[in-house]
TrEMBL record:
Residues 19-91 form the Methylguanine DNA methyltransferase ribonuclease-like domain. GO terms for molecular function: DNA binding; metal ion binding; methylated-DNA-[protein]-cysteine S-methyltransferase activity. GO terms for biological process: DNA repair; methylation. It comes from Orthonyx spaldingii (Chowchilla). This is Methylated-DNA--protein-cysteine methyltransferase. Involved in the cellular defense against the biological effects of O6-methylguanine (O6-MeG) and O4-methylthymine (O4-MeT) in DNA. Repairs the methylated nucleobase in DNA by stoichiometrically transferring the methyl group to a cysteine residue in the enzyme. This is a suicide reaction: the enzyme is irreversibly inactivated. Transmembrane segments: none annotated.
Amino acid sequence: QVNSKQGGSACKEKHVVLLSPVGKIEISGCETGVHEIKLPKMSVLPSGPESSVSCEVCEGAEEMPEPLQQCTAWLRAYFCEPATTGTLPVPAFHHPLLQRDSFTRQVLWTLLNDVKFGEAVSYKQLADLAGNSRAARAVGGAMRSNPIPIIIPCHRVIRSSGDTGNYGAGQLLKEWLLSHERLQKEKLA
């Protein structure tokens, strides 16, 4: 048993590992929601933009609380059938950053709701969307602290120059995710 991060009642944290085209993605959460998604640091890109790896839960499949089931289903769809992500429920989140009212939370929710698959937005544009046009640097900070990458698509936030900018899990993974979305969007067009 782990104390929930807000210091409220204890939550039983469960861990799941999803084997994805970009490597092992570690997901933690409880009955209330997803706590965190940890992406692998990539030093080499998977072969070809569409790697042949299917998306399978390789650890922790037993007794998975509903938010983790929804999270793994959503990620599997993201990698394998991106057109279906819009029809899937976004799992509940249970992370203090997403509970308390803050500009970071505002930015992350705005990103989740307004920047669609295959789109990109600049730090400044996202600051505008979140209601503070002068907060582009704060948007960068919000991206760095995002506990739920891919679902909250911080990889879609790029520099105004068009340069991809930084990414917690590394430049290669950010570029792979952006190119994966571009290719999938072209297929559907």
